[in-house]
Amino acid sequence: MNRNLFHLAYKDIDFSEPIPSMIDRLIREHRELTPKLGEIENVSKKSPSEAAALLLVLRTTILRHAVQEEARIMRVVLKDAKSESADSVRIMQEHRWVSEFLERRLNDLPQVSSKEAGSEIEKFIVDLRHHFDEEEQIVFPLALKALASENSV
Questions:
Q1: d(CA 144, CA 148)
Q2: pLDDT tens by residue, 9-57
Q3: What whole-number distance in Å separates Cα of residue 24 and Cα of residue 92?
Q4: 44 with 51: CB under 8 angstroms?
Q5: Local structure of residue 84 (DSSP, 8 states)
Q6: Structure pTM?
Q7: What DSSP line would sit under 125-136, residue for residue?
Q8: CA dihedral 44, 6, 127, 37 (to 10 degrees)
């Protein structure tokens, strides 16, 4: 991630927020982002440049969200459920392509054909929604399980 955006997002993390509350908030953020991403996907079919501009508006929100997941959620998973963490680690590693797309590729899209730019934006959005689903089905439940086992010791 761009060091400036990473530091901005990292310093905004509330390390006192309880993990269950944080997970609830992250799921709410997924629910809030999903319709916006759907709108951008629809716009990308007609105007990829407008869709790219709309994604730029969401960029900081999405990157901050990813940093919070990595800094807090994965810390719990790796500390207390390491033996079950392979899928969660893979899912968190997907944040790399999210940040690469939002911080680098998005800026390069004006140099490619409109059709290619629209296709790339659509693929990014489909993949990001799938990523949200995987976090909710795999990463967050494992973090809660790990937290419960930590608290039962």
A1: 6
A2: 556 677 788 999 999 999 999 999 999 999 999 999 999 999 999 999 9
A3: 18
A4: yes
A5: G
A6: 0.89
A7: HHHHHHHHHHII
A8: -40
